Amino acid sequence: MSRTPEPRSLSSNEVARILGVSQVTLRTWEQRYGIGASGREKNGRRRYLPGDLDRLRRMRALQVQGTRAGEAARLVLSRSAAETTVDLRRLRIAESAERLDLATLGDLVDDALGSLGVAKSWTEVVAPVLRDIGQRWAKAGDRAAMAAEWALAAAASAALDRLRAPAPARSGRGPVLFVCGPAERHDLPVKMLCAALGDDGAPAMFLGGLVPLDVLRAVCGRFAPSAVVVWSMTSPSADVRALRTLHAEGVPVRPAGPGWRGLPACGEPLPSSFVDALADLHRM
Predict the structure, then answer these.
(1) Which CATH number covers residue 201?
(2) Residues 255-283: pLDDT tens digits?
(3) Same domain, 135 and 103
(4) Quick one: which of 116, 165, 190, 235 could link to 231 by a disulfide (CB 3.0–4.6 Å)?
(5) Residue pLDDT, tens place only, 101-142
(6) From its phi and psi, is residue 229 left (phi > 0), alpha (psi between -120 and 50) or beta?
């Protein structure tokens, strides 16, 4: 009967190169937090097994996201699925985005939405990964980072399209409509906000971009919305004239997104925080 081959182990130098840290950092993590190599050679040199590398990857990913070393170690070592699952999801999604693996990204985002709900999937998983990738792109002009950001945004948007939101509760109020500026190309944050509202059982409709003003008027006349969220990520997509026209006609417009900043908009702006904006819309 053949023996199952033992998993390949790695040296400290190999692991340090994979993680982009020094060997001194690896020794520090092991001595201070107990996260290190589970194997040793006869001469005492460390050998890292696949499970060791997984834990170290999580430790590194948390630190890159701004988590202090002690807290990162606690999360890595914790047996609480509630704490470690989010970290693992971020790590796997980030790795799949770097590989431009759209199929795996779709599966991972689908699973997050189904397990965590829309709001938590966005605020704790997808948005942090997009932010980290975007910062790398902005700092170094890394084209690979730009492609990874595109891949994750595309996969997340497609996952929302597949998501079947629960039927809204009969609240006696009109739905919240979500629409983008005519030139808007970054609709994922507001699409997530709409899905999160629907996920909580509130009536919500995402209309997307390039919606003619007359069409929007007709939709408002048909559904009597409690609010019309007009999203703009950048100022060129912020249509101040259309917003003022709708406001003057009595449409309850709510400008949202950084594109409106500094512009003479009308209507009460939504809070910039996703969580605060969601709570604000629930109070309407």
Answers:
(1) 3.40.50.280
(2) 999 999 988 878 899 999 999 999 999 88
(3) yes
(4) 190
(5) 998 899 889 888 887 889 999 999 999 999 999 888 777 777
(6) beta
Looking up tokens 């030139």, which residue turns up? 183
Which value, in Å, is the radius of gyration of the alpha carbons in the chain? 23
Q: Could you give the CA distance from residue 14 to residue 140 in angstroms, rounded to a whole number?
A: 25
Q: Which of 127, 118, 267 is nearest to 193 (CA)?
A: 118
* 156 and 222 inside one domain: no
Q: Is residue 20 part of a domain?
A: yes
In what helix (H) or strand (E) does residue 13 lie, and over which residues does it extend? Answer: helix 12-19
In a domain, 6, yes or no: no
Structure tokens at 183: 């030139």
Residue 227 has pLDDT above 90, yes or no: yes
Whether residue 64 is found in the same domain as residue 123 = no
Quote the CA–CA distance of 173 and 185 in Å, as a whole number.
30
DSSP 79-144: --HHHHHHHHHHHHHHHHHHTT-HHHHHHHHHHHHHHH-HHHIIIIIIHHHHHHHHHHHHHH--HH
Quickly list DSSP for 197-235. Answer: HHHTT--EEEEES---HHHHHHHHHHH--SEEEEE-SSG
- Asked whether residue 278 is assigned to any structural domain, the reply reads yes
How confident is the model over 4-30, as pLDDT tens digits? 344 568 899 999 998 889 999 999 999
Domain assignment present for residue 246? The answer is yes
Shared domain for 41 and 133, answered yes or no, is no
For residues 219 and 213, what is the distance between their CA atoms, to the nearest angstrom? 10
Give the structural domain span for 17. 12-77
CA neighbor of 222 nearest in space, from 175, 171, 166, 168: 175
Question: Domain containing 73 — which CATH number?
Answer: 1.10.1660.10
Counted domains in the chain: 3
